[in-house]
Design goal:
The complex is a heterodimer.
Chain A lengths: L14 E6 L5 E8 L4 E6 L20 E7 L17 H15 L4 E7 H12 L4 E9 L4 H8 L7 H9 L9 H9 L4 H18 L6 H6 L3 H16 L8 H4 L9 E6 L1
Parallel strand pairs in A: 3-4, 3-5, 5-6, 6-7
Antiparallel strand pairs in A: 1-2, 2-4
Helix pairs in contact in A: 1-2, 4-6, 5-8, 6-8
Chain B lengths: L3 H9 L5 E5 L9 H20 L7
The chains are: A alpha/beta, B mainly alpha.
Chain lengths: 265, 58
């Protein structure tokens, strides 16, 4: 099995655009590589992330016609950081609106982390629109997976977790998600910023075994720190807007599609 | 960082899918290991799509 492949060369979009998807949200999208290629869609992580130039480079530029877009409220989509109307159902419908807008019949759908969840949720809603699925760093929205992020990771990163928990007064440490969510959605920067910084610092140290001061610091840019913490806790407190276990239970709808699951230990 | 157990459960519910567990993968799509693993997966998928008759220019 081919386990690793170098990224393809840097590529600029051959076409970009904006698509209004409702009376508030407009998506930024871009297309790269072969206009006559096999259609592929990349879904970024987060929730609250955005597409990066490197995300264009996973695909053979001669074979694929790749569409990337910033999910509502993210990246170059507008209004930036808007959580109103930001839920899984709307994100799925955004993908479908974009597909129709671009005149694509079917596409290969790929995503990592939150993008894996959204890929699976979209495919289960519109299986007839998917050529196949590639999902990496699997997240299926279960309560145990949310609990893992807020508590379980301490098994691997006790020092990062201790700082994350100890940011809060002892009586609030039994519900880290609730306590952080209350703070990051506050309108008061003296409340929201330190909490967002603590949450993002924890995220930074625990998303890789090779985090460094520099990689963590990069996540703490003041303009993105609070919005990303808000996005993440907004989706967590709402259980990612899906019934528990729905993604795994829905697999019979899409198991006929060609699929690849990539996961790190 | 997500758990291998979740991927394994997904694979059990999707036995037709190919499960690749890599020894170390950071979670960020722009880190080397996950980016190169995803690129390899795209190449394997390309081969499968070609086998079903899909190709550019159709």
């Amino acid at each position: 099995m081919l386990e690793r492949h170098p990224l393809f060369p840097e590529v600029e979009p051959r076409e970009t655009g904006k698509l209004p998807v409702d009376n508030r949200h407009t998506l930024y999208w871009e297309r790269v590589s072969n206009p006559k290629g096999v259609p592929a869609l990349f879904l970024h992580g987060g929730p609250g992330g955005g597409i990066r130039p490197a995300n264009r480079r996973n695909y053979d530029p001669d074979f694929f016609d790749v569409t990337l877009f910033d999910q509502r409220g993210c990246g170059r989509s507008t209004p930036l950081n808007e959580l109103e109307g930001n839920d899984t159902r709307n994100l799925i419908e955004d993908i479908e609106k974009l597909r129709k807008h671009l005149g694509i019949e079917k596409w290969l759908v790929a995503g990592g982390s939150w993008g894996s969840f959204l890929s699976l949720a979209y495919a289960q809603a519109y299986p007839e629109r998917c050529l196949g699925l590639i999902v990496r760093g699997i997240f299926t929205g279960g309560d145990d997976e949310i609990h893992w992020w807020y508590y379980g990771i301490r098994n691997l990163f006790p020092e990062a977790w201790e700082a994350f928990a100890n940011f809060l007064p002892p009586e609030e440490r039994r519900d880290l998600l609730g306590a952080y969510h209350r703070r990051v959605i506050s309108d008061d920067p003296k409340v929201n910023f330190p909490a967002a910084e603590a949450l993002r610092t924890y995220s930074g140290w625990t998303q890789s075994f090779r985090a460094t001061e520099e990689t963590v610091k990069a996540l703490l840019a003041p303009e993105m720190c609070v919005p990303l913490a808000r996005f993440f806790t907004h989706f967590c407190v709402n259980r990612f807007f899906m019934p528990p276990g729905a993604i795994v239970a829905g697999m019979p709808k899409i198991r006929h599609l060609p699929g690849i699951i990539v996961q790190g230990r | 960082m997500t758990r291998a157990e979740i991927a394994y459960k997904l694979a059990k519910a999707w036995p037709e899918a190919e499960l690749q567990i890599v020894i170390e993968a950071g979670h960020n799509s722009t880190e080397t290991v996950p980016a190169e693993s995803l690129t390899a997966a795209c190449e394997r998928m390309k081969a499968r799509l070609i086998a079903t008759g899909l190709k550019p220019g159709n």
